[in-house]
Amino acid sequence: MYSYESSEDCLAIVQMNAELQHAQLELLSAHCATHQLRLHYDADDLARFGRRDVLRKSAEAASALHSFYSAIEQKIPPSTPSPNLPLTGAQIAQAVEYVSSYLREQRENYFTAALPLSNQHKARMWPYFSATLLDQVRFVELHGQRVSPPSFYAQARALGFENLPEVTHMDSLTFLDVVVFNDTLKERSLFHALVHAVQFQVLGLERYTELFVQSFVKTKTHFSVPLEAHAFSLESKYMRPSAERFSVEDHVLLWVNEGRY
Question: Do both 93 and 220 map to the same domain?
Answer without folding.
Answer: yes
